[in-house]
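Researcher: I'd like a structural prediction for the single chain below. Treat it as a standalone chain; there are no partners to consider.
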Amino acid sequence: TNNSLNISTNIETEDLSVSIFDLSGRKVFSGHLKTKNFIGKLDFDLINGSYFISINNSNNEKTTKKLLIVK
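Model: Treating it as a single chain, here is the predicted structure.
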C-alpha cells in the first residue's frame, strides 16, 4: 500500500530530510525531499497507525508533527 503526503514550506525551493517514527521511537522511514513552488510530495509505505514525522531543512531547522495513517 502506498501513502503520499504533501509538505508545504515557506521557501520556494528547499532540500528537506524527513524521518518518520512509530510511537515507540523506532524509525520506520527516512528520506530526502526537494520542494518546488513551496510544495514537496513524499511517498512512503506505512500501515494504519499513529506516527511522528520529523522534518529538517538545510538551515538545521527542525519540526516534528503527529502523523495519523488511516486507509
